[in-house]
Amino acid sequence: MKISSKTLVVLSIMFCYVISLCHGSFRPFTKTVVTLTNNISPPTVLTLNCTSKSDVLTGNVPPGQKYLWKFIANWWLTTKFTCRFSWANQVKWFDVYTADRDQGNCFECNWSIMADRLCSSGYLDQANNRCYQY
């Protein structure tokens, strides 16, 4: 059985439409931006290591400065970035992006990193802008 190019295009469009209905404001191929801001007090350099299945991101972020990256989340809702934050004698871990929490709701995911918690902003649903303990 041979499928024509037109049929394949129509099926692809229908698939995207169904996915968007099921996942709210899911927009395939839209870049997501994650921004981490060092708001640790007393001011100190934040060392971070963020990983996904296919990426490893590392950096040193001076006080008050930002570290950001862009990516396209996958269609299977499994994209996840886990970050290890370290400063002074502290080491903390947090999932700064998980598809089941963020995909379709956060296209500019902003995190304020503090010594005792981190707080999110940039969510389309303002109820998801909140603080989390490590």
UniProtKB/TrEMBL annotation:
Its main location: secreted. The keyword Nuclease does not apply. Residues 1-24 form the signal peptide. It comes from Capsella rubella. This is S-protein homolog. It is found in: Secreted. One of its GO terms (cellular component) is extracellular region. The keyword Secreted applies.
